[in-house]
Design goal:
The structure is a single chain. The protein is an alpha+beta fold. The protein has helices at about 20-30, 40-45, 100-105, 150-160; strands spanning about 5-10, 15, 55-65, 65-75, 85, 115-120, 125, 130-135, 140-145, 165, 175-180, 190-194. The strands form three sheets. A five-stranded mixed beta sheet has the order 10-9-8-11-12. Strands 2-1-3-4 form a four-stranded antiparallel beta sheet. Strand 3 and strand 4 (about 65-75) form a beta hairpin. The longest helix has 15 residues, at about 20-30.
Length: about 190
């Protein structure tokens, strides 16, 4: 079994959405490793110094033994301007795993685009590495059935910034913009025109 993953943004020395990461990690461990104590991500992060002025991408891997890998790299956002819809009705990525083979196979279908948006059963889900939020000119909406219920996505839903709805692939062009969102990219940091 591949390990599970949390990716945490530390910006100017501050870990973001840590409560959401801890909850997702606890949920995953309860499901797969019910007899393993859930490590404290806060304790792991507090044990290190985080220089200000840098955005860090903290990669944490864990399994039945607890945390097995903890590394931090300076983060630089990818340059993405063009998206391509690709269909895969049988993909399942409900738990954030280091096993990204299916996602990489779909990403390879991007052609001249920079990234893919995966369509499952006629509905938009996620890109190969992020949730999405679509802007209709007034509101930001996110697919009700994403591949992964991301921590940034959940925090934006809880704050009332996003609403969920089923978004048909055929309605893609009725939106103005799409924002790629994940632990490293808050809403609006990476926006593409549709």
């Amino acid at each position: 079994m591949y390990p599970f993953v949390e990716t945490i943004r530390v910006e100017d020395g501050v870990p973001h959405n840590l409560r959401y990461h801890q909850l997702r990690m606890a949920d995953t461990m309860c499901r797969f490793f019910p007899h393993t104590p859930v490590p404290s991500l806060a304790s792991e992060l507090e044990a290190r110094k985080w220089p200000a002025g840098i955005t860090w991408k903290v990669h944490v891997e864990y399994d039945a033994r607890g945390i097995t890998l903890f590394k931090a790299d300076e983060y630089h956002i990818r340059h993405i301007t063009r998206l391509r819809l690709v269909v895969c009705d049988d993909i399942n990525y409900a738990y954030k795993s280091a096993d990204r083979r299916r996602l990489e196979t779909l990403f390879a279908q991007r052609g001249e685009a920079d990234e893919v948006v995966i369509v499952r059963n006629g509905l938009l889900t996620d890109t190969s590495y992020s949730n999405i939020a679509l802007f209709d000119g007034r509101h930001w909406v996110t697919p009700r059935q994403p591949l992964l219920r991301g921590t940034m996505r959940q925090s934006l839903l809880d704050a009332g910034v996003l609403t969920e709805q089923d978004i048909k692939a055929e309605d893609w062009n009725s939106y103005r913009q799409v924002s790629l969102i994940n632990a490293m990219m808050p809403l609006g940091r990476l926006v593409c025109k549709i």
